[in-house]
Design a protein that fits this description.
The chain is of the alpha/beta class. The chain has one domain: Vaccinia Virus protein VP39 (Rossmann fold, 3-Layer(aba) Sandwich). Helices cover 41% and strands 24% of the residues. The chain has five helices and six strands; from the N terminus they run H-E-H-E-E-H-E-E-H-E-H. The strands form three sheets. Strands 1-2 form a two-stranded parallel sheet. The protein has a two-stranded parallel sheet with strand order 3-4. A two-stranded parallel ribbon has the order 5-6. The two termini are 29 Å apart.
């Protein structure tokens, strides 16, 4: 919980943490209590594709290595509508840094996650989706 704890302690914010695994949310609640920030973190058991969050209600969405579950472009589209005007969407995503790479690597990742793209293609999705 390093980043979440830092944000919860350092900023006057309310954090909604979402996971579909109840056991992980229990771990989060326990760590938040030990860190003294349990009153600032709301743990929600839900699917990322069906978030029980009012559109236009979030200042920021922070997702580390999870947007691929929805597909990058679909995730950006779905989550963008949850943000307030001027809200921030921060995600980490499997991304090629160059246009060329070994064929074996390309084949492996195409079979695992066909939506892997270059950094410029990921940025283009953000630009199209606002």
């Amino acid at each position: 919980m390093p980043v979440l704890g830092f944000i919860a302690k350092g900023l006057d914010v309310h954090i909604v943490a979402v996971d579909f695994l109840p056991d992980l949310l229990d771990v989060l609640r326990s760590r938040a209590a030990r860190a003294g920030v349990a009153d600032r973190i709301e743990a929600v058991n839900a699917s990322m594709g069906a978030l029980p969050i009012e559109p236009g209600s979030l200042d920021a969405i922070w997702s580390e290595g999870a947007i691929y579950n929805l597909g990058f472009e679909n995730g950006v589209r779905q989550w963008r509508r949850l943000l307030k005007p001027g809200g921030i969407l921060a995600v980490s995503e499997l991304t090629w840094l160059t246009a060329s790479r070994p064929a074996e690597l390309e084949e492996h990742w195409h079979a695992q996650y066909a939506e892997v793209g270059t950094a410029s293609s990921k940025l283009a999705v953000f630009e199209r989706k606002g």
